[in-house]
Specification:
The protein is built from 18 helices and 9 strands. With 369 residues, the chain is α/β, with parallel strands linked by helices.
Length: 369
């Protein structure tokens, strides 16, 4: 662990206040905070990022151990201190940590262990939803995994390099990696790879290994017409172009123009040349594409409960009402978008959710129609 300095903690407090009191997204907040001081070394930045996310992951449990939710900067310092203590770190003898009583924390910890939603740091409504949909035993197995820091996977851009060559190049710059397959590397030690020459040259994307399986399941071939109907910023679109060798046609569709702008930038960096970007401004856009796709991907909006370990702040921003609206959107997409598929084509319906209502229930309803 990096040597502790008060500015580290002030940076974490700044980030946490933006995430919890200003409702900003954690990844953007952390990136902004890390950019704010160029003097910080890699270990300093890693300490700030790691401890910000640790508090976000375990926020409810930490608040329970502290006795209340934070209202002042000193309260945020105490949450960070408790988080460090729980992971076996010694705290400096600073004023902000003087009121932390290990005996009281131990007593409250024993109580928290008996309260599943508190111990796993999730809202009560989410605990009830998970148990209802997955059953008590399966939900209880999922919960601890959702608070484990996710590994970092890289997807190799086959248009520009190979897994072996990328590993060699990144290893020279001090990155420890392991090859999973010809398209995937896992990072052994976390660091900021977005500033690396290899990333700027478009040799790889940071993409979860499970996300990569979606494009592999499409069985894409060079020459296909592939429609990524909910493309977002284009992670799977870029992957498809890599698999297809820039041959054939890819149509990337989304309702958000700003995401499509990001996609265009990523495509230029990756050397992707067979992608056409279209905004879904009305139902006419998809109707005009009837029977065009050899392969169709519906990576629909969802609760995101399958990737909480990567986006832990989502559990504090979600609500039952929001999830209900998402399900209506899923049903709407499954009702109209499949018409873009050729009769002998392949369609993949994908979510990053573990809830059956986001997945199997939607598929069964679709097939019945």
């Amino acid at each position: 662990m990096a040597k502790l300095f008060p500015p580290h903690f002030r940076a974490i407090v700044e980030a946490l206040k933006a995430i919890f009191t200003e409702d900003q997204y954690a990844d953007r907040v952390v990136a902004r905070v890390l950019r704010a001081d160029k003097r910080r070394g890699s270990k300093d930045r890693a300490f700030i990022a790691e401890n910000t996310y640790e508090v976000v992951r375990h926020y409810r449990k930490l608040c329970f151990l502290a006795g209340e939710e934070p209202r002042s900067d000193d309260d945020w310092w105490r949450l960070i201190g408790i988080s460090l203590l729980l992971r076996g770190h010694q705290l400096p003898a600073w004023r902000e940590f003087q009121k932390l009583d290990p005996t009281t924390i131990e007593k409250r910890l024993a109580i928290a262990q008996k309260r599943r939603a508190v111990w796993n740091s999730i809202p009560d409504w989410l605990d009830e939803l998970g148990e209802t949909e997955l059953g008590d035993d399966q939900w209880a197995k999922y919960l601890p995994a959702l608070n484990v820091q996710a590994p970092v996977f890289l997807r190799v851009n086959l248009l520009k390099t190979t897994a072996k060559d990328l590993k060699e190049q990144l290893t020279k710059s001090g990155t420890s990696l392991k090859i999973i397959d010809q398209e995937t590397l896992v990072v052994r030690e976390r660091q900021n790879l977005f500033s690396s020459p290899a990333f700027k040259a478009g040799l790889f994307e940071v993409q979860d290994i499970h996300s990569q399986q979606v494009v592999k399941a499409l069985e894409l071939e060079p020459g296909h017409t592939f429609i990524d109907a909910c493309s977002g910023a284009g992670g799977k679109t870029m992957h498809a172009a890599s698999v297809m060798g820039n041959k054939g046609t890819i149509l990337a569709l989304d309702i958000h123009q700003w995401k499509l702008r990001d996609l265009r930038k990523r495509a230029r960096r990756a050397g992707v040349q067979n992608v056409e970007v279209r905004a879904i401004s009305s139902a006419k856009v998809t109707k005009r594409l009837k029977h065009r796709a050899d392969r169709l991907l519906l990576d629909v909006p969802c609760s995101g409960l399958g990737v909480l370990r990567r986006n832990p702040d989502a559990k504090w921003k979600l609500s039952p009402e929001f999830i209900d609206r998402l399900r209506a959107t899923q049903t709407e997409i499954l009702t109209s978008y499949p018409k873009m598929l050729k009769p002998d084509g392949i369609m993949i319906y994908a979510t990053c959710s573990i809830l059956p209502s986001d997945n199997l229930a939607e598929v069964v309803q679709f097939l019945a129609s």
